Every structure is written in C-alpha cells, then in structure tokens.
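Researcher: Structure prediction, please.
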Amino acid sequence: MPELKVFARPERIIFGAEGPYLNPGVARSLHEALPTSDLWLLPKKGHWPQLGGAPEVAQLLLSLPEATPA
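Model: Predicted structure follows.
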C-alpha cells in the first residue's frame, strides 16, 4: 500500500455503498492510499455496481480526467 502514495495518475474509485465484501470501508482505505483518486459510493448498489448501475458507472468512467504525460 505505501507504493500507492506515489502513483500520480488520476484514479476513480467506484464502489456500491451496500457492498458486503468490497464495502465502503475498503473503498475509503483505497482512496486514502491513492492521493490522486476520487471516490464514488453509489447508493443502493452492492458488490457489482457496474451491473446494477451501468449508466452511472459508465458516465463516471467517461468523465475521468486524462492523465498528464510525465
């Protein structure tokens, strides 16, 4: 996890707010470990938010800023 602190590309973390395994606590830990990330917890979505919330997930992915070349 410490190596993630130096990862400089934009990251979008998308989790279902009601996920039983990969839950909001796991999402927040990942978000804290990736300083360039943003976090989206999708309400009323579980372990597979990309299935139950496909349009919302697609929009979030398409709106992710592009990385600046190093």
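Model: Residues 2-62 form one domain.
Researcher: Thanks, that helps.
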